[in-house]
Design a protein that fits this description.
The chain is of the alpha+beta class. It folds into five domains: 9-37 and 80-269, Cathepsin D, subunit A, domain 1 (Beta Barrel); 286-417, Beta Barrel (Cathepsin D, subunit A, domain 1); 457-528, RRM (RNA recognition motif) domain (Alpha-Beta Plaits); 541-620, RRM (RNA recognition motif) domain (Alpha-Beta Plaits, 2-Layer Sandwich); 630-678, no CATH class. It has a nine-stranded mixed β-barrel. A five-stranded mixed β-sheet has the order 15-18-27-19-26. The chain has a four-stranded antiparallel β-sheet with strand order 17-16-22-23. α14 (623-635) packs across α15. The longest helix has 15 residues, at 44-58. It is found in: Membrane. The active site is at 100, 318.
């Protein structure tokens, strides 16, 4: 459960047991999730019920509780939450806490707590915090400025007799917690440079829960407490920032695949593709100014007042919400636009009040792209999996339902995990803005599946010996072989290989030694790859993201072509094929960072006039792929297609002049034209 950020990260990271994130920097909190986000085994009614309970808590401080339409009587705790492990006290002790961007305060259950669960269905060890057993713990008195800040937010109070700063959080679903504030040490690692870290501590104020009621007493998905990441002064991110330890920035990336989980980073991610929109000022949560919604490039006709940012209205970003929610008018227009777009390709059906579709091919190829358009010009691009939830199948057809739900009469839009997943989200509190960019976990998942043990080490001095490397790397585990590459004179080439007995040891060594100083140089350490692995990873990286483009005007160069195509996403490379004299041959290739962006370019730009010529845009194919397609097509040239005689339906114009290949493409549900040279 990890991510490899495609950019340098400057962070301070909260760690317990020096948590190392597999495949990424050792600078992030590992997030666990009880169940996958969009499992077809979880009906939408269950997810709605869980969110209804959640929103009772989330919106309490905004002046009211939203009552969502609920169907059925399903257990809301069958769905997931994100949690992580932190370390508090002297000596330090482990606590599991839920990550919550919808609240501000960190609180954990304390000894003598009434109603605190003793066990958890998450299969984690619950602990109670004991102020008396920590030598650095102290109660927060009424005179403390932090207590005054809590009182101003109406969540805190002060007892004149005990001189203790206390709190009570009463949630809209009937549950609650109360206790008093204490101050103690939070343990974390600070990144210096490269992958080098130093152990650090900071004194923070947090809640010591003495009473829990309602659903907080249940053991089904119990954790030790809640880690609030709101923007008020009592949040840990604000406290660390006020001490000069971290900037007022944090980020998360939630995995959308069946493994769930993700990462959370304290600090700034310098990623050039992140787009930002301002936070709405003077709001208790992360409220954004949503201006419009587009489906398939067409702006929906929705009264702008629906997205008003006035009191008790607006758009809230919340990692604790499972689905996503729209106000009445926006929801109806959204669902109608989706259904009208796909009604010729799928069968729309209603399932328990939800708009669903029976699908026999890929949703990515059929369903339109959605754009949420925010103030400042930032757009959040949603693909099919970002607004659909897969349910059970019927007669061999998959059932996909609209994951956005309706909020009646509230004027509120809530963006939950359905939308937030597979994106890097940056909460820049210092500049009062939120940013995002898409992130693809595919390559990371494939890299981790190889389970490597061999490391490639380079950039060391020529006088470094095998004995020196053995001394540096053997602290991480048993080494089976170590070799430095040398020339024919026996002089070191400055690189070599270290092979461990176990993958876990190789991973720890890679993370710790990458960027470490050895003599006057900084080491580069990476997993050593066999040729076949490198080829497979490169193939996976660019599979479905490379486009073939023809009918390019002779006056168009690579820069103009890139500028035109980047409206569909991040263009990583552009190449126009030329003669030996440098004259354009009228075709070339455009590669995107993600498959979804490439599909969007096909959908939007294929057939569009560009400098006087209609572009032909299709997925690029390797020679082997073209060969397989032709062999398959001509081996059975008269295969029926969908019950029709002949190689293709005479009323259908094939995308290229090869009838048999067209039949094969149609039969295999290739809804986009594929590059076949003609």
């Amino acid at each position: 459960m990890a991510a490899v950020f495609p950019a340098w990260v400057m962070v301070t990271v909260l760690l317990l047991e020096a948590v190392v994130v597999k495949g990424g920097f050792p600078t992030s909190l590992q997030l666990e999730r009880r169940v996958p986000l969009a499992s077809h085994e979880l009906e939408l009614s269950r997810l709605r019920e869980r969110d209804r309970v959640r929103h009772g808590r989330l919106l309490q401080s905004s002046g009211g509780v939203v009552d969502f339409p609920v169907q059925g009587t399903y257990d809301p705790f069958l769905v997931g939450l994100y949690y992580t492990k932190i370390q508090i006290g002297s000596p330090p002790k482990d606590f599991y806490v839920q990550i919550d961007t919808g609240s501000d305060v960190l609180w954990i259950g304390c000894n003598s707590c009434n109603g605190c669960p003793q066990s958890s269905g998450l299969q984690i060890q619950l602990n109670l915090y004991d102020p008396g057993s920590s030598t650095t713990s102290s109660p927060v008195p009424c005179s403390d400025q932090r207590c005054s800040a809590g009182i101003q937010s109406s969540d805190s109070g002060c007892s004149g007799q005990s001189n203790q700063c206390s709190y009570t959080f009463q949630y809209g679903d009937g549950s609650g917690t109360s206790g008093y504030y204490v101050s103690d040490l939070l343990h974390f690692n600070t990144i210096l440079e490269g992958s080098m870290t130093t152990n650090s501590t900071a004194s923070i104020m947090f809640g010591c829960s003495m009473l829990q009621t309602g659903d907080l007493t249940k053991s089904d998905r119990a954790v030790d407490g809640i880690f609030g990441f709101g923007q008020q002064s009592l949040s840990v991110i604000s406290q660390l920032s006020s001490q000069g330890i971290t900037p007022r920035v944090f980020s998360h990336c939630l995995k959308g695949n069946n493994g769930g989980g993700g990462i959370l980073v304290l600090g700034e991610i310098l990623e050039p593709n992140i787009v930002y929109t301002p936070l709405v000022p003077s709001q208790p949560h992360y409220n954004l100014d949503l201006r419009s919604i587009s489906v398939g490039g067409q702006v929906l006709s929705i009264d702008p007042s629906v997205f008003s940012t006035s009191t008790n209205q607006g758009t809230i970003v919340d990692s604790g919400t499972t689905l996503a929610y729209l106000a009445d008018e926006a929801y109806n227009a959204f669902v109608s636009a989706i259904t009208n777009t796909v009604s010729q390709s799928v069968r729309p059906v209603l399932s328990k009040g939800n708009q669903c579709y029976l699908i026999t091919s890929s949703v990515t190829d059929i369903f339109p792209q959605v754009s949420l358009n925010f103030a400042g010009g930032a757009s959040m691009i949603l693909y099919a999996q970002d607004y659909l939830v897969q349910q059970n199948s019927i007669g061999g057809a998959a059932v996909w339902c609209i994951g956005f739900q309706k909020i009646q009469g509230q004027g509120i839009t809530i963006l939950g995990d359905l939308v937030l997943k597979d994106k890097i989200f940056v909460y820049d509190l210092a500049n009062q803005r939120i940013g995002w960019t898409n992130y693809d976990y595919l390559l990371e998942r494939m890299e981790s599946n190889f389970g490597y043990t061999n490391l490639y080490v380079k950039n060391f001095e020529k006088d470094v010996t095998e004995e020196t490397l053995l001394e540096k790397f053997s602290v991480f585990g048993t080494i089976t072989s170590l070799v430095i590459s040398k020339d024919y004179n026996g002089v070191s080439k400055g690189f070599g290989f270290v092979n461990f007995e176990k993958h876990e040891d190789a991973f720890k060594a890679k993370e710790a030694m990458r960027g470490a100083q050895l003599g006057s140089k900084v080491l580069y350490v990476a997993r050593a790859q066999k040729k076949g692995e490198r080829q497979l990873l490169l193939q996976l990286k660019y599979q479905g993201s490379n486009l073939y483009v023809k009918h390019i005007n002779d006056g168009v160069d690579e820069e103009k072509l890139k500028e035109y195509f980047k409206q569909c996403g991040t263009v990583t490379s552009v190449r126009i094929m030329r003669t030996e004299k440098g004259i354009s041959r009228g075709f070339g290739f455009v590669c995107f960072s993600m498959r979804q962006e490439a599909l969007r370019a096909i959908q939007i730009l294929n057939g569009v006039l560009f400098h006087g010529k209609p572009l032909y845009v299709a997925m690029a194919q390797t020679r082997e792929e073209r060969k397989r397609l032709f062999q398959s097509a001509f081996r059975h040239p008269f295969t029926n297609v969908e019950g029709l005689q002949g190689p293709f339906n005479p009323t259908i114009t094939p995308p290229y002049p090869y009838a048999a290949a067209a039949a094969a493409a149609y039969h295999n549900r290739l809804l986009f034209p594929m590059y076949i040279p003609g």
